[in-house]
Amino acid sequence: MRAETISIVSETGGHLGAGLGVVELTVALHAVFDAPRDKIIWDVSHQCYPHKILTGRRDRMRTLRQKDGLSGFTKRSESPYDPFGAAHSSTSISAALGFAVARDLGGLCDTGHGDAIAVIGDGAMSAGMAFEAMNNAGHLKRRLIVILNDNEMSIAPPVGALSSYLSRLYAGEPFQEFKAAAKGAVSLLPEPFQEGARKAKEMLKGMAVGGTLFEELGFSYVGPIDGHDMAQLLPVLRTVQHRATGPILIHVLTKKGKGYAPAEAARDKGHATAKFDMVTGKQQKTPSNAPSYTGVFGDELVKLAARDDKICAVTAAMPDGTGLDPVSYTHLTLPTKRIV
Ligand SMILES: Cc1ncc(C[n+]2csc(CCOP(=O)(O)OP(=O)(O)O)c2C)c(N)n1
């Protein structure tokens, strides 16, 4: 799956790092849940290439993002496995909740109504829409599964209170006292997966149980778990599938760009790329005479800020919204504390 994703994007260009980070998660979700009856909703859906490979579109993947080809995002008209069309971020929890409510109201749907599962990144989770959805989900108490795919990366490294909070959740310190309670949760694991259960037990030792922000909002919280380890993903997903009654959040830790050295090494973990050479990772950028929008905006902003120290730049939960590398700011003597 990973090799195929790299090979495809090397020919088509597109979103690379996010898809590579969810290869195991994608396989595990499709192994445990019954799509398209169960609705798997990918937030933004720039990470959906592995999902498309697995859901009948492998032979058309090299038409991605081309005229009459496959969309680079999930698209309802393209496949019954894409129950929700996206591209804008932070909509997946609301969408999944909508499916859950429709199911519970006996709604009709060609593919049926099973579980609703939203997969949302830590960057997308910081947006207001995601919180609006959690507010609603925690109140309605419907069975709903949210997977927080936490790779400590957005388009660029994220900043903000939620990002720091998530880091603290798996830094361990504040949750040490809950370890004993977490061990008891092993008894919930399904019988046939002895090896999985043993590994899960190890994992549960390090889990945070109780008192998370998500629990305060009415979700059960499971995690954090290693999103690249099938022996953790499968038993946890199966347990949730068997036992969940209300909204539940599974906190999965992954690496953006996982398994492809040039993406792992890139500052943005290979978020998006032009066509590239698979061996070297070198991108074949089409030469353009036109400057980029962000470049023009950033240059102008920095020029203005050099003359006026009251200018503040406000960015979307990322440090370098001007399109410039943060080091450029120091050359231009723009006070970095003003980049918020
Ligand atoms: C409303 C909106 N704002 C901004 C974007 C641009 N965007 C695309 S992907 C992305 C980052 C998503 O980060 P995260 O949710 O952590 O997912 P990851 O790529 O790390 O898997 C952003 C900001 C968007 N798609 N929609």
Uncertain residue ranges: 173-187, 320-340
Q: How many discrete domains?
A: 2
Name the strands of the widest sheet in spatial order.
2-3-4-6-5
Q: Tell me which CATH architecture of the largest domain applies here.
A: 3-Layer(aba) Sandwich
User: What is the CATH top level name of the largest domain?
Assistant: Alpha Beta
CATH topology of the largest domain: Rossmann fold
Largest sheet: 5 strands, parallel
The secondary-structure element order is: HEHHEHHEHHEHHHHEHEHEHH
Shape: globular
Strand portion? 5-15%
How many runs of DSSP E, i.e. beta strands? 7
Bound molecules: thiamine diphosphate
Write up what this structure looks like.
This protein is α/β, with parallel strands linked by helices and 340 residues long. It has two domains: 236 residues, 3-Layer(aba) Sandwich (Rossmann fold), CATH 3.40.50.970; 47 residues, no CATH class. It is built from 15 helices and seven strands. The strands form two sheets. Strands 2-3-4-6-5 form a five-stranded parallel beta sheet, sandwiched between helices. It has a two-stranded antiparallel ribbon with strand order 1-7. α12 links the parallel β5 and β6. The longest helix is centred in the last third of the chain and has 15 residues. Thiamine diphosphate binds next to α2 and α6.
